[in-house]
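Anyone? Bumping this.
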Amino acid sequence: MTEHLRSELVKIKREDTELTVTCPDAGPVAIEAAYDEALAVPPTLKLVQKADEQGYDAAIIACFSDPGIEAAKEIANILVVGIQEAALHVAAMLGAKFTILTPMRQRIPHKYREVRRYKMEQALASVRALDMSVTETDADPEGTKKRILEVSRQAAEQDGAEVIILGCAGMVGYAEDVTRELGLVVLDPSSVALKICEGMVDAKLMHSKRALFAKPPAKEYKGMK
Amino acid sequence: MTEHLRSELVKIKREDTELTVTCPDAGPVAIEAAYDEALAVPPTLKLVQKADEQGYDAAIIACFSDPGIEAAKEIANILVVGIQEAALHVAAMLGAKFTILTPMRQRIPHKYREVRRYKMEQALASVRALDMSVTETDADPEGTKKRILEVSRQAAEQDGAEVIILGCAGMVGYAEDVTRELGLVVLDPSSVALKICEGMVDAKLMHSKRALFAKPPAKEYKGMK
Amino acid sequence: MTEHLRSELVKIKREDTELTVTCPDAGPVAIEAAYDEALAVPPTLKLVQKADEQGYDAAIIACFSDPGIEAAKEIANILVVGIQEAALHVAAMLGAKFTILTPMRQRIPHKYREVRRYKMEQALASVRALDMSVTETDADPEGTKKRILEVSRQAAEQDGAEVIILGCAGMVGYAEDVTRELGLVVLDPSSVALKICEGMVDAKLMHSKRALFAKPPAKEYKGMK
Amino acid sequence: MTEHLRSELVKIKREDTELTVTCPDAGPVAIEAAYDEALAVPPTLKLVQKADEQGYDAAIIACFSDPGIEAAKEIANILVVGIQEAALHVAAMLGAKFTILTPMRQRIPHKYREVRRYKMEQALASVRALDMSVTETDADPEGTKKRILEVSRQAAEQDGAEVIILGCAGMVGYAEDVTRELGLVVLDPSSVALKICEGMVDAKLMHSKRALFAKPPAKEYKGMK
Amino acid sequence: MTEHLRSELVKIKREDTELTVTCPDAGPVAIEAAYDEALAVPPTLKLVQKADEQGYDAAIIACFSDPGIEAAKEIANILVVGIQEAALHVAAMLGAKFTILTPMRQRIPHKYREVRRYKMEQALASVRALDMSVTETDADPEGTKKRILEVSRQAAEQDGAEVIILGCAGMVGYAEDVTRELGLVVLDPSSVALKICEGMVDAKLMHSKRALFAKPPAKEYKGMK
Amino acid sequence: MTEHLRSELVKIKREDTELTVTCPDAGPVAIEAAYDEALAVPPTLKLVQKADEQGYDAAIIACFSDPGIEAAKEIANILVVGIQEAALHVAAMLGAKFTILTPMRQRIPHKYREVRRYKMEQALASVRALDMSVTETDADPEGTKKRILEVSRQAAEQDGAEVIILGCAGMVGYAEDVTRELGLVVLDPSSVALKICEGMVDAKLMHSKRALFAKPPAKEYKGMK
């Protein structure tokens, strides 16, 4: 998955962008619940810290639920971008409303919560599930493609969506039919985040450290090195 | 702090309630940032899991930012209550609007975010800071008392608050003047959560496991025991 | 109906709770419209006043539309709880969104209005009607049970509900299948209100009398004793 | 007061409008609380019913809190208009935001509630109090005038109000300076309601009886004639 | 179309109302896009200016998208009313929620935007399309009537609408069945605006010129006479 | 002004970006009202059309009120970006809330309207005015700098802003102190839009033409060439 993401992003990055795609060496092998996020966040934060120390201009957290994004912005002295936040804001500029596709039905309320976290619920048409696990999308590319088209059509016709956000890496690569047949814009959040992030770095933009993302007061963290 | 909380709660619990107050043995010594929360959550979740295994009826997460509440509800087979969520909902029943008091000004936007997480922003009058650190409130009880009264008065007169939520353990114990002089209701979130939780257990209430708090799919968690 | 409510509540009240269930001796025999509420309120307020004078700790208005709740809170020196307000706030803690079941379709917009009155519309999945009158639910328990299951399923699958609030006394007693088959939490507002109220009395909580529920200025009430 | 209202309205009514201004013979002598409203509503509804039976085209409830408006719309076969609802909607057409003036500070949260009832809170700049009782406004016209100007200026400069709604009969008649000095539009709700109502009757408009204002199902009303 | 509008309005105007119905001599022959509006606005503003100079009491912009309404209110010294704004506010008084009918599906998101512009989205049930062009509604009165009834029924049953706003001139004249069969109120925006406008002129109401609709600062307009 | 904008943007554009900065040859010399916008839009749209025909990848409308943005997106086959929409969305990623600075107080309600148009009002801290005309900011750089710092401080301390959006070209160039003294991020909308636009073009993003920005149906435009 890390490999796949790297190969996708390398294709679209600017020539002068130095890109490292990496993955925490501890934590859940997939993020399918708030519990998984909770365990993925501490090792992710270490990677952000490392990127900061190594002189990167920005760090992108490339999981659609943007795990640990607030904490990362607090501890980093460099720009931190979540792929969901970038995708939601770009989507809002490209059409009346957007729909998020997510693999499993069970996660729909969680996705609504996150859109509210970003205060973007007014531009949200709906969250819709493929009803396919990541394993299933991997095993059946034809079925996945068909299902994405079908759910996108429902989003457009029933919910008024004009933009589709692919809420999972396994969905990337099937967008063409959706655009051609339905006139919808399809966003791959990782790609969008990379391009927006390049622009923000150029413009020397950084999140404010005044309050919401202020550096945590120094303290003891028991049992942690 | 754990000791102090225990002694407060023991006073108001029902006689037939068996209460254990405990604290994670790892993590930050105080929670003053999203980063602190991120590191506090994994050990907190272990305590919730343990409470569940040991046959408790419910677990209360007694830090005002309700760290890990979603993850805890996912993994537990017992009722989990956050002291913030209980306080917000009870506050909304007791007056037109409520104000949350928080120690440091810097954390105000974070508090607004959390009220939005619980969809209670319409009942929120304001978040106001004492501009005193926890150390300062501990060192100066008279000053703390005066400051709580002063900020509560501003909340009432300028923001229309009728209920004050004490957003930090260090503030508990100074409420009387606020109620007598200003006609405001003052809530200590831990106490409120305990009493609401007792009632919910009696009524055999449990959060739904259908979707938002569904059990996480089984998977490997690398580097964790 | 009063008798039935008493027998239900007696089962779940705490042993040390002294409970009186009573009914105004004037007013409509059922509350199915704002007009019915308007005529039910004055005699209801007299009962609240009486409870206050007789030294009760709290009064619960046990009709789902919480008739006269603001006025009751104004005139009472004791805690007043509406069963709808208690149910809405507890529901919001137990799942992503809740649906209210109401007997007749015609009353749906009225229910939406009331959820807005309590500022809880963001947690509302939907209001759905059984399309059965109270007489019909009384006459056909099997049909009622089936209908509740059917409508709850629609609420869960189409509206994203995780909690069902039974918006009418006639619906109580059929909840088990809904929970077992659909993973939904089902709330009986009267029971919820009683348990929450017990906890609030223990915690010595009272609504603020500062403004929204301030005592009405003394005045002449013409033609009233 | 009834007399005063009549003389004001007679001046602005259309020549062909037949106008009767009347007052319930029972109930509170002033409406300053939800409790007062609760007792004023039943006799008010009788007057609406009578107007309907006597062949009037419309009934206007001329108290700013629109007491009993939903019930009145349910039972009437003629158009019923509340002076608050008419004023809020007209105000929203005449400027960016409006402020409601109310006599006593204590009633401010109640006024916010009502604006929410009409779903007009997005156009509301603020509710501000004169801090004068009705008796005081009657006794001191010069002081009242000065105070209205002062509070209107605060509403304009601090809250962005462009329209002022006079939320009490005692305030009518002092508007000129507010308009001339501040460029604000000042609305007297009774006058606005009368003119809007005349237009609606001309256009044969009637509220829908489909659901929210449907006729209450027939039933026994115990102890009532 | 101008002729048809004139004949409709003449029927319902007050006898003492002097009414001129006119049309810009430049611009698009129909308004079906923001682009069409953009080109229609400058000549429309000239007509408003002319009405002001000629001593009219008010100007009504009789196209449902209220093109140029803010600019018109800025430059005019007389009352300016948009037929959409009048219809939305009257609709909100007549039932729980309203639905706007529009000819073509493509324009639905635009209509939502406009309802938001007027801050009336909370009273909006839905926007629904006839899926008929203006040409088609002209050519097939029977089909149009049937389609309006069908779509209104969906609005009532699926979206909870109690009021239907006819968002296009071609729909006027088919309302009776909708009211009789469905209990819905049907509004023709032009008629509503005329009657509301007559009342507002009587009451000497004018929009505030303080800020939102303040006269534009004098400046050079290059290439314009 | 066009010259100044060009020199600013040339500094930050990517080397491989071919940039043309141009200005309509007709219309108001400044945009200070909806009326000015109404007259500026038709000539602006011609420039967008020309850019499209000449093979540009994107057009940026570089006036903070984004005049004609919807119409431009309708008629263009290339990406169109407004500098306000880009700034609002980027601002929302960089801090808790943002404040917009505008020259004159009178335009504040108009700015609120536009933030609502973009559905970004939940991230808005406030709109605040410098109370200086464009002429004054040009004539007094020291005073302007001082005033920007002063108003930004109010935005931060009283409204909770963490990001400042410079809502007028005359304000650009004084940001450093604001960032250093207050910890605020300051955005120049034109610069932000250029960098975001470069990224969107790279990612081959285009607004959806399905409905909101669909091509206007062909029709006659009377009196226009």
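Late reply, but here is one note on the structure posted above: The mean pLDDT of chain B is 95.
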